[in-house]
Amino acid sequence: MTELRIGVFVCNCGSNIGSIINCSELADYAKNLPNVVFAEDNLYTCSETGLTKIKNGIKEHNLNRVVVAACTPRTHEPLFRGICNEMGLNPYYFEFVNIREQCSWVHQKEIHKANLKARDLVKMGVARSARLEALEKYQVEVTSSSLVIGGGISGITAALSLAEQGFEVYLVEKKRKLGGMLNDLYRISPNYEDPSEYLQLVKKVEQQPKIILHTNSEIISIEGYIGNFYVTIKGQNKVESVEVGTIIVAVGAQVLKPVDYYNYNGKDIITHQELEKLLKENKINQKNIVMIQCVGSRIEERHYCSNICCMNALKNAIIIKERAPDTNITILYRDINTPGTKNELYYRDVRKNEVIFLRYNVNKPPVIEDGKIRVYNNSLKDDIELDYDLVVLSTPLIPNEDNKALSQMLKVPLEENGFFLEAHVKLRPVDFATDGLFVCGSAKWPVSISEAIAQAKATAAKAAIILCKPRFEVEGSTARVDTEKCVGCEVCIKICPYGAITKDDNDQVLVRNVLCKGCGLCGATCPHQAISINHFTNPQILSQINALVERE
Amino acid sequence: MAFKPKIVGFLCNWCSYAGADLAGVSRIQYPPNIRIIRLMCSGRVEPFFVFEALKQGIDGIIIMGCHPGECHYMSGNYEAEIKFNFIKKMLNFINLSDRITLKWVSASEGIRFAKVVTEFTEFIKTLGKSPIQKSKNNSDLIFSLTAMQQSMNNYRMRVLMGRKRKITEQKNVYGEKVSIDEFEELENKAIIDEYNRERISLILKKHPLSVKNLASSLDLDEKSVLDYIVWLRSKGIVDVDKIQGLTPYYISIQED
Hints:
Order of helices and strands of chain B: EHEHEHEHHHHHHHEE
Number of domains of chain B: 2
Number of helices of chain A: 15
Structural class of chain A: alpha/beta
Oligomer: heterodimer
Strand order of the largest sheet of chain B: 2-1-3-4
CATH architecture of the largest domain in chain B: 3-Layer(aba) Sandwich
Number of strands of chain B: 6
Largest sheet of chain B: 4 strands, parallel
Helix content of chain A: 25-40%
CATH class of the largest domain in chain B: Alpha Beta
Distance between the termini of chain B: 41 Å
Distance between the termini of chain A: 27 Å
Radius of gyration of chain B: 21 Å
Largest interface: A-B, 59 and 58 residues
CATH class of the largest domain in chain A: Alpha Beta
Radius of gyration of chain A: 30 Å
């Protein structure tokens, strides 16, 4: 084994660290740690000067491990790894010690203790660096085409955006016609746009040579990984296999048919979707119209709020009022959800427009009986009786039934209601945790058209990042199986969130590096401790614990 | 001199470590006792690490992960919680379970991070120094922790930890669904059994003992010790060393 030669670079970060931590003393302390052959402090390690000092250190002192004590690896690790790489040192031989965010900035009133902590942290980092292993990044070839599943507004937008950037797109739609739910709408809230304005996009799709359209088609299998997905599409007359680099899920959602609610009959008790159709056909002339909100949503079996129905009901109420101002419209609601700057103003306008709002209690919901609606009013502490000629129910968007099958093909999770679950609510809102897979629109959650379009464009942008390069680089910090120790019990296969562990033809467990994210679940679980996690191995972590308790 | 607890924090890279960074960026002050070890996911925390840290005299251990449903790796934090509860149940035997905690902190919760660390540090101060450090006479504790550490490394415990979530949430290979209560009944029994078996095999590495000796030194009844011995013999872990009078003495025959 080659002799360990560790170099430690302590950053003052101007006065951010230097005003609390005595960095030159810390560097002197580091010099006396095992295997450290060089240590110095500098004003800004990330500056050109600082980086040159690391380069010189590596060259002059023949360093084979580099430790930087500075800010957080979450922002600066790639920079310093890059410098190591430039100097011919494997980037995984770099170790970061956080003495700013997690020391100097948070212990400003306990300077002595902060200095002791910084020493401990450096000691732990040096110990860990001694056990670091060189790793290789994996390169995968990328097929520069994409699959978009779903031909509603989200899918159309994503497909057009990618095609206009020059990528080939396979757009797969279950139904005969593109446009999804837009086809059923009369007007769009809150600006009363005609959906046909948006349906112009369908023509654009049909004329776009880069988009290969598969209507009346469904996906029957998906294999592979980022850059190399193999997808089988079943059309009416033929089955076709295509190869794509990324996949965008834009399958949308469906409207709940309220068969068990409020004597729904599709005639004088209908849904808003059916109302839109009647509005289109100009068949609304009823005198007394009652709308009921939250039918089948925000209840025990379906907790969520469907997000779009309040605005939709308000819009339909206004349309009816404008056509026939003497129509009596009453909206029975639990809460009105009109967030944002425009929607709330819109709601206020509707209230001014002689639409009556009556709040009902979820525990005493309205009852339709003998041609009348009775609703308990909490302020009056009594029932109110309403006449009706037409009742319109606001039912939520619910997940498609085939979400489950698709999620299993893609090996991505669904959330508790059956919608697709993104990688991270805030940080990765249109990504799946698996590389190369994205989600937008109501497949994820009921959204308005403007939200759907924004998300669709986001997925296209993210997919393009991958598609525009011939190769994709995958992290080297993955799991590896010790085939001597492995007994093939498959606990790891079942616990891996990415389906990255499989058995080969000889029944040998193997990790597919391209799919592995290095989370370490399998390693911490393997009953025979046959899996180690690159860059976070047991010896590396134990060395940090041991360094901390060592007496000087 | 005032007690300055040493606390180790195992933090996941994506939520809690980012939360710690945010506490820094926001200059929120908290006690300087914690030493953070960054991992990719809280699910990476090997029970082994926790026992090792306790054996080394660390006063408190805090594991932090993403909030339920927000794990960067989808299910890692749920698995971390399962492992944490196994560890906690074991540590209950020697009254050390208060010294470890599991908290969810998101990347946007710098204030919460500082609060959690402050509260835990204060709490550890009220507990005082780790009993491992407190007295030189700590070989019994080290012995128990070693037995726990090893039992958490054994096949049965790891399969129980690794399969708990899927088995109780989905169906097993026979299409049966095991309720969480049923599973935990099994789990609790396994924790006791595996801990005792490891203690017996550890103690028998030092010198041969009879069932009676074992029962008194491990504070167990003779019937259960005998049951454990029968099991350990069947697995080739212990064997009869000698017979004195009518009493067999057992010894561990397992190689390290």
